[in-house]
Amino acid sequence: MLTEVDSTRAFRYQWYFWRCIGLHPPAEDSFWARHYRAWSIVVNVLPMICMPLSFYMECLHSRSLTAFCEAFYLAAVTFVQQMKLINVIRVRGHLLELQVIMRQLDGRLQSAPEREAIRDKIDESEKICRYVLQLFLSAVVSGCCFAACSAERQLPFPSWMPWDYQESQGIYALTFVVQSLGILALAVICASNDTYPLVYLIMVAAHCKALALRIAKLGHNALSQEQTHQQLLACIQDHQTILQLLKILNTSMSSACIIQFVCTATSLCTLSYIVIYIEMSFFRLCHVFSLLTSITIETLLICYASEQVTHEGGQMAIAIYDTNWIDQPVRFRRTLVLMLMRSQRPICIVAGNILPVRMTTLLSVIKGAYTMFTLLKEAKSKN
């Protein structure tokens, strides 16, 4: 007896995060549902409005290149997260549509290896989501530890405040707590914004793998030639469904990806400048390295997931060669050739409709960060 699988289980962390931050209202008529709009406004004011404004103002008030670099990476990261959150609100309907398509593909699974391939990717997605959340929370904790261990009254992250938080211990403690809570909420929003494209792409890759396993079995069983041809047509239909999934994902993620790559390059540049040219304590050094790791992993995740889709899409072409096409009629072979031609075209997300998202894209982003760093270095030497 084959147990059923549910691909949408891989997205449970994302929808839970979105419900907590006010983007996924409950369906039932309850007290929580009636007051959910008010909750969504309150929970987003501090991390998505107040905190970004404080980082932007800190950039504008900086009077040196060093001070600007210290403030800029936070401003860039929060700006990207604001854009990503707006994009999630814009494509929320498409994401719900994708879940329906995923369930349709789940219903087409025919063997235990296919179901096992889906389960493995579900487990992988959930593990990555937990690790990403832990990573972002560790960056927040390291900033709080750095500020708490500092001899002066410093905030966990450099930001502008409309009051003098160093005036008294009470005002400083209140400001410290408010910023920590805002950054904590921002970390959860970052985790949800950065993992939902990853999970969707991993599940698309999982269904590509399951389809490849199904294709490779064509002609190797006791079915008649007509039944085998009907199975091939069903595989082609599933392949078209997967391509439709990827098209919707590309529409939803294209603009966010290009903004993410620019933000990663500029943030890596400014953080590297801080590490090299600014003297800092051990705690602050650990904090900066945790930020460097978090920002790099943001781009690494999307590149890794898109690379998986490209790899599994290419495996379908290999699976077509594994079919027993020799013993099949001409009609089957002609149909198989058409599927082979389509499966040989690489599939992946295209950032801004110009840049294919692959693992090599991460190297290009790092090269861009190094180029900007050399420009900053020259500007510092001239000053």
UniProtKB/TrEMBL annotation:
Where is this protein localized, as stated in its record? Cell membrane
- What Gene Ontology cellular-component terms does the record carry? plasma membrane
User: Is Mitochondrion there in the keyword field?
Assistant: no
Q: Which residues form a coiled coil?
A: none
Q: Which residues cross the membrane?
A: 131-151, 171-191, 253-278
State the Gene Ontology terms under molecular function: odorant binding; olfactory receptor activity
Pfam families in UniProt: 7tm_6
Q: Which GO terms describe its biological process?
A: signal transduction
Its record classes its membrane topology as: Multi-pass membrane protein
> Mind listing the UniProt keywords for this protein, alphabetically?
Cell membrane, Membrane, Olfaction, Receptor, Sensory transduction, Transducer, Transmembrane, Transmembrane helix
Chloroplast is among the record's keywords = no
Give the record's family classification: Belongs to the insect chemoreceptor superfamily. Heteromeric odorant receptor channel (TC 1.A.69) family.
Q: What is this protein called?
A: Odorant receptor
**Which organism was this protein described from?**
Drosophila mojavensis
Organismal lineage:
Eukaryota, Metazoa, Ecdysozoa, Arthropoda, Hexapoda
